[in-house]
Design goal:
The chain is of the alpha/beta class. 20% of the residues lie in helices and 18% in strands.
Length: 146
Amino acid sequence: MKFDTAVLIAGGLGTRLYPYTATIPKPLVKVGCYPIMEILIRQLSYYGFNNIFVAVNYRAAQIESYFSSGSSYGVKLSYVREDKRLGTMGPLSIIKELPERFLVVNGDILTDLDFRKLADYHVNYSTNITVGTYKVKHKIAYGVIH
């Protein structure tokens, strides 16, 4: 089964990066020369995820305007607008065209994770859900995975 679909969650307010996010959404904040989400889209394209849904809410028009159809990155972008904020996984409930298998990535993270290896692991081990994590040695206020 072809596994080439990803969902970028890009609807958050970006409050931890305020005041930078007062005028632009967090996925458009630049790291070096590129916005965070552009780096992610390029990575997803590189690993063969060329069908990408982008769940947007806060400053959605800016994200849609910047990335357009995605053709300049070798991908097809489809935007899903949340009428109200749905949280991290809520947007999945309003994407009608999702295939059986898809990758979900927050639109504001930077990683060197090989998305293809993660997807292949998921398929090879026939799991219902696979979560990519990174072990850290300091406490964070956003939850812990054991």
